[in-house]
Amino acid sequence: MEDENKLESVVGWRRTIRFALPSMTMMLFISSYTMVDGAFISNLMDTDALAACNILMPLFSVLTGLGFMFATGGSAYVANLMGRGEDDRARGAFTSIVLFAVAVAMILTVLSLVFMEPLVGFLGADEVLKAGSMEYGTVISVFCVFFIRQYVFNQMLIVAGRPGLSLALSVAGGLTNIILDYVFIGVVGWGLTGAAIASGCGALIPTVVGLVLFSRGGMTLRFRKPVRDPSVITSTCTNGISEMASELSGGITTLLFNVTMMEYVGPDGVSAITILMYAQFLAIATVIGYSNGVAPVMSYNHGKGDREGMQGLYRISMMFVLVFSVAAFVVMESFSSYIVGFFAEGSDGVMEIAVAGAAVFAFAFLAMGFNVYASSLFTSLSNGLVSALISVMRSLLLLAPLIVLLPMSFGIGAVWYAVPVTEFATLVLSVLLMLVLGRGYGFIKGVPRG
User: Phi/psi zone of residue 191: left (φ > 0), alpha (ψ -120 to 50 degrees), beta?
Assistant: First the structure.
């Protein structure tokens, strides 16, 4: 018996949070891959090894960006078709998206393996970090297909009305990563190679199980003959380009942070910025998870023309982001020494730099969640251009120049102000865009503009 569509039943804050909770937890586990690697590496090896991993963060940004692009852009496209009652076309489009994502991932694997040595040099690795970066990056490249496809499968399970299954796969992958990190690094002694294999195995599980689930006849969304329509891929990519742009921009800013810290402070500075980025990843993963969880519902209501449902979901989402943002700020300000100590206990230099930076960095959490949700909101409405504008604004257009210019003008301590200033400036843009466009789309109550 085929599953009923569960997206139309997501009404009210209780059902909305319950529906989004698996996605939030899922994103926490997915984002934990590099964090768990970092925790085991810094505690079982040293902070130089942690810095060597962080040098490769731009590569992870490419993987995550591609995964998010296909997942969010594709899910919005597929959910919109389902909202219009075109379930069979939605299945064919879903299959086409998955196949194209796999092809892109295989190309990325080949390019990464061939150009790994010049890549780590370009990303700022010195002689101390180069060998470790190459070791970690080479193994990670082998798993590109699994890293990208897990994002697509996890998001499409939500579209299929199965957020619980999406959560279960993410938990299984995350626990696998944690266990294998301990075994491969702490017991077997494989070092950075072991950390990379553990992360790859964590992504392998949801990919393999997802293949089985989407091959079942009873799933609302399942594999079928792919549609021969190039607009499926172009619409997916253009709509999801904001997430891709955000992650790529994040990789560029990570590169700038690393280069700046290496120039002014050295490897300890790279380790310090790595730790604060881990804290940011953890916080932002919750908002991304919520946004990804409710995005198919917004896309479905948009396709159905249910303006009342869109307005209710928007109000709930804004309240959730407000509460979470304040909570994240309070936690970061109150417990920064404990958070930093988890990664850098025993390294006084790293501790001092990171704790001082956290006191300023934490203010970014007050605005960051709103910007992430705003970008996701417009993606769910198939407006990739506006979504990309918000994403690029917060992760490249302002942040990149500030990372370079603030230390040059005021010293290295000023670099921590780059992220908060960028997020609050982007918040102004996000609010304006939501107010100006909200009535036209229907998520803000009012008469639609003709």
Answer: left
Report pTM.
0.70
Output DSSP code: residue 363.
G
Q: For residue range 249-285, what is the model confidence (pLDDT) as tens digits?
A: 767 777 788 888 888 888 788 788 878 887 887 788 8
Highest mean pLDDT among 149-163, 416-430, 432-446: 416-430
Question: How many beta carbons lie within 10 A of that of residue 421, not counting itself?
Answer: 16
In degrees and rounded to multiples of 5, residue 381 shows phi and psi of -95, 10
User: What is the C-alpha to C-alpha distance for residues 233 and 69, in angstroms, rounded to an integer?
Assistant: 11
Q: How many helices, marked H, and strands, marked E, lie in the chain?
A: 18, 0
Q: Tell the residue number behind the tokens 């604004």, with chain if given.
A: 393
CA 267/CA 128 separation, integer angstroms? 9
* Cβ atoms of 49 and 39 closer than 8 Å: no
Q: Is the backbone of residue 206 left (phi > 0), alpha (psi -120 to 50) or beta?
A: alpha
The whole-angstrom separation of Cα 443 and Cα 299 is 11
The residue behind tokens 């417009």 is 378
C-alpha dihedral sign at 309, 76, 395, 441: negative
Structure-token pair, residue 49: 């090894």
Residues 150-186: b if buried by 16+ CB within 10 A, e if exposed: bbbbbbbbbbbbbbebbbbbbbebbebbbebbbebbe
- Among the residue ranges 37-46, 72-81, 130-139, 222-231, the one predicted with the least confidence is 37-46
Residue 31: C-alpha distances to residues 64, 203, 262, 269, 286 (Å): 10, 11, 25, 22, 10
Tokens of 185: 């690094």
- Do 371 and 321 contact (CB within 8 A), yes or no? no
Say whether pLDDT at 139 is over 90. yes
**If phi over 0 gives left and psi between -120 and 50 gives alpha, with beta otherwise, what is residue 445?**
beta
Mean pLDDT of the chain: 84
- Work out the number of other CB atoms within 10 angstroms of the CB of residue 347: 21
